Amino acid sequence: MKQLEFFTSLFQIMFFVTALLVTAGIIFGRYKYIRRNIELGKEWKGTHNPAERLRLMILIAFGQKKMFARPFVGLMHFVIYAGFLLINIEILEIVVDGITGHHRIFAPLFGATIYQILIGFFELLAFGVLATCVIFLIRRNVVKIERFDKPEMKGWAHLDANLILIFEIVLMFFLFTMNATDSILQMRATDLVNNIDAEHYKVFDTPVRFLVSQALIPLYDGLTTTQLVLLERAAWWFHIIGIMGFAIYVTYSKHLHIFLAFPNVYFTRLQPNGEMNNMPSITKEVKITMGMEEPAADAGMEDEILSFGAKDITDLTWKNILDAYTCTQCGRCTDVCPANMTGKKLSPRKIVMNVRQRADEIGQRMDEMGEYYKPDDKMLYGDYVTKEELMACTSCNACVDACPVNINPLEPILEMRRYVAMEEADVPDAWKAMLTNVGNNGAPWAFAPTERFKWAEEMKNSNQ
Amino acid sequence: MSEETLKIPTMAELSAEGKSPEILFWVGCAGSYDDRYKAVTRAMIRILNKANINFAVLGTEESCTGDPARRAGDEFTFQMQAAMNIEVLNNYNIKNIVTACPHCFNTLKNEYPELGGNYDVIHHSQYLQKLINEGKVKFGGGEFKGKRITYHDSCYLGRANDIYEAPREVLEKLDAELVEMKRCKSKGLCCGAGGAQMFKDAEKGHKEVNIERAEEAVAARPDYVAVGCPFCMTMMGDGIKHFNKEKEIKVLDLSEFIVGAQDL
Fold it and tell me: In which domain, by residue range, is B26 found?
């Protein structure tokens, strides 16, 4: 058969290898870009206690522990996750086939029965992925789950989420079509009476059909062998090229969590959630003010102008930016935020999304301007995040607890508050009064420090 | 117990006598000035006296830990407070601190060490649990026997420091029926006052956080809402009042349950 020879020709192999190399090249470029953007953040010491970090990574990223806080959605997500992980083994075969020009190269290694069970198992997973993606599409577009319908989820965020789901459904459909048409071709290739020239598809002495895709066989059985070969090859190509496209797309998408969840959980902040990061520069200043330390001889001569808190992503740590690239916008943080659920503007997810948007804005500008790069006049605080949002946070840590991949939305909020308070002195008037009271009276209320122990007097005098 | 025998020793007095206490009871600003929370301070003093604990307070030498200043973004004011308090605490060579305020607790325990203040700090829920376990504090159900109690988790105890069981174990000793709100423990909903929100009006929204939480508390049909935090106390008290339930549902601190059960 001429088509067959054509499709198995050197041209096909070369095309495949080229596609693979181009994909790898693009992804490497994206990797460098994202890594550089993350490194725009300040130094952060998050590497101590590797054993604990590994434990968390296995439990939370690999084992998806926190996803099961909502068991039903957790289970559905696990189906897609397990499917993604295991179907990769089948993709490995596809890639080796593509490079070598073989067909189902792993089949002889396992023998007909085991191979059929294996592929059947992958198909079962693929069916799970497909079904779950359909349910997720319905949840996003028909049922209108509240957390998917917040202001920050309009436009690109909404489209991105849908595209990913549709992408996965299409990929799974091509996988089934590929296997179904392949089964028919195997049957025809081994049919001793009406034998066709499709030796390429002959894998075993008896043809094999697979658990899920066999249901599609009646759909394609009427096609001619030529049509079948075309369809099988088209499905094969769309499936594998689709996967390459998907891999590239992911680096632009909120779907990056499939890779970054692992390092992000590894670099989890291990201090108690309640502990705010210290500012050593202020410790020094306080000691000088209290006469506990002499000012440095070169005071005021330092090159570096100290700025307090965060006004832009470059004032945050690299972990805060890694958090932002890891965020898949599920909105569990916003869902449990007391400020958000009572109608305030603050949404922890939006803050995290803003960090990524701003990092991308700076990163793209750096790439465009190259060595002539100079910063734009925009800032994370002011251009993306408003004071009203920052002021509404109760620092309750519900967002931190809720994140399935250990993103900390609280840290950037509190760092920006430090900027508002110390650089702009722009906190609400009630806070200014409170701060004055703390400074003057040693209490947030306007009571005299001499009255602090009055309760004891009252208690001793009362005859209860 | 007659009021004359009630002791409230200060560190200055003890130090002058060359003595040192087993624990320092850190009263906190709310415990010192807030009328409602002063009752919690009194309850703690009664419990400490009854259990014959060698304790002391700082009296006028105590000052705000700086927590609200730090949460409002003013690190300078926070660190000034911290430096002054650490100086006082270190001068008295304080080792153990107990406080009835989760915010003071969090700051003293987690944030002072980096600034030179290293103490063994526990929240009064943990301390009361310890005293009960050691048999130093004994009580039956008393007036709380068979009553429905729901415990509201303070964020600065719970998610901030992973303390969920100590307060519940104290309450379990009351022979009462402990009921949980829909959102509890690590999923507990904030009262709305953390992060210095206590000291300003909320931003524009469609509801106050404490109303959202009080609604949930009311739905649990408790006779008592138990708290372990001065801000939660204010917010839950106001929230319960908002629903005109203050006659049916009382908001009490853990120590007040013990004092009530002991009829101190």
Answer: 3-130
